[in-house]
Amino acid sequence: IYLGGNEQSTHKYVSELLGKGTIDKKSSGETKGRQGSSSRNYDVLGRELFTPDEVRKLDNKKCIIFIRGFVPIMDNKFIPFNHPMFNQTADGKGEPYVHQIRGADNLIGPPFEILSDKAVKYYEKLKDKGENVYIDSLTYEQFMMLGDAELSRRFSMQDEAEQKAKIDREQANELEYVDESQKSDAAESANASNGSTGAKPVRNPEREKPKWEDTITNRMLHWSYTPEQKEEVKKALAAGVPKATILTYFYAEVTVEKMSSYRNKH
Description:
- This protein has 266 residues and is α+β, with helices and mostly antiparallel strands.
- It has ten helices and four strands; from the N terminus they run αββαββαααααααα.
- It has helices spanning 8-18, 52-56, 117-128, 140-144, 148-174, 180-194, 216-222, 227-238, 243-249, 256-265, and strands at residues 20-31, 37-48, 62-65, 73-76.
- Strand 3 and strand 4 (73-76) form a beta hairpin.
């Protein structure tokens, strides 16, 4: 809606929005003399509906309305000051409206429920069965600061973590591991060839080469290790064992005792 103004760029902008129209042009001419003549011409020309200066001189009681899909409309302005309901507005004698933020009113019952131990076990069983159940652990401070956006974000993170864990388990099942006898033979042959100071386990040549970067962190993310194996790797890193050396024996099929012996030899 254009209500009027005195900005030159606005006048030009409104004039361009209004577009152009056609007008009829009539001209006549006469030549006097011994052989006088006269002519009369009719032309159709195009011009702006409102030139910028005409937009500037628009009556203050008028306004121009632009509606998508319709031609522009010029109409009278509505003057609200004499309306009988004007005093109820904030510009009159009324109080300004202040929006009060309220919670969701469509909840049936309390927004949360304290579960017993039996109920928690019931939902844990549902989650183990693959039902649409999310179980999260929060401190009291985190729970008090939890809003709708944060709740949705935590659910999304949990869902992504569960999907990733499922994919990791499927990939782990596809990996081929050597038998215990083969592993022991490989370890013994490595000890015999390298001596007592630099023994290293032989990597299974049939193991599928991972598609991700082979690092200690990625192995812990993609392969299944026991807590004791993970703790042993932490001890090896703290003892200064090179990561390249740790990668030679850090496999799920290598026992904690063997990992500890490799660490002690370095």
